[in-house]
Design a protein that fits this description.
The protein is α/β, with parallel strands linked by helices and 206 residues long. The structure holds NADP nicotinamide-adenine-dinucleotide phosphate.
């Protein structure tokens, strides 16, 4: 996640494209490491980002996109992920019966399976059961909250951006319906490049 000096992780009107090329390069390094890239449908539609290792488009090592949602409405048309034709990904929806892919994403490139889940843990268990061990979660904050509530996060990467825009919104990197039990972290690294700071935390296991 990237956060402004005054704590914002979402912009009221714009897509989130505030990080520097260095921040994107670091994100790409994580994407290259990851087997899967988990992102919410809301963030994908809002920011319309590519779900690949963007600085190395010809790399053989792109994470598998995993898109999470709860509503049955169709995807916004013309998303970049669609145009760029990933090799394949999957959709997860928190309802009892899986819909047909065509209802969610009429022109989706070949055979992205649609799975259903009760608990967010179901997604992680299924991915791990199929050999996807390294899972990178890229938000947004509400989806992050579901993962934190289920105690599914081991590490946290946070970029501090030299920006402020104030306002009254209460966006933050992790949003949950109710406060969750305190989670503690150890600072693994703290690096500065120009005006940004990159923080890497590991969860303390009790
Ligand atoms: N600063 C950063 O690094 C960063 C990173 C990522 C995103 N963002 C920003 O975050 C904002 C969006 O964040 P957000 O918190 O509003 O939303 P979000 O976390 O991106 O999306 C929440 C998603 O979770 C699904 N969902 C909600 N409750 C659920 C449940 N109980 N079970 C299953 N799925 C559930 C929703 O599905 P439906 O779509 O079907 O409702 C929705 O897609 C955007 O402005 C984006 O730019 C910032």
């Amino acid at each position: 996640m990237a956060m402004t000096l005054d704590g914002h992780v979402a912009h009221p009107t714009q897509a989130w494209e505030f990080g520097s090329p260095e921040d994107r390069r670091r994100m790409d390094r994580l994407r290259e490491w990851a087997d899967c890239l988990v992102v919410s449908r809301r963030t994908l539609e809002h920011d319309d980002m590519n779900l690949t290792v963007r600085t190395k488009p010809h790399s053989k090592r792109h994470p598998r996109p995993v898109i999470v949602m709860k509503s049955l409405r169709p995807f916004k048309p013309n998303l970049r992920t669609l145009k760029n034709r990933h090799r394949g990904g999957e959709l997860w929806i928190s309802i009892a019966t899986p819909p047909k892919i065509e209802t969610l994403w009429p022109d989706l490139h070949e055979m992205w399976p649609v799975f259903t889940f009760n608990q967010i843990h179901d997604i992680v268990s299924s991915l791990q059961g199929r050999g996807y061990q390294k899972i990178l979660l890229e938000g947004g904050p509400t989806l992050n909250g579901l993962f934190f509530e289920s105690n599914l996060v081991d590490e946290f990467y946070l970029t501090i951006l030299p920006l402020i825009w104030g306002g009254k919104t209460t966006d933050r990197s992790v949003i949950t319906e109710n406060p969750i039990p305190l989670q503690r972290f150890t600072l693994r690294s703290c690096e500065r490049r120009k005006n940004e700071i990159y923080l890497h935390y590991a969860k303390k296991r009790t």
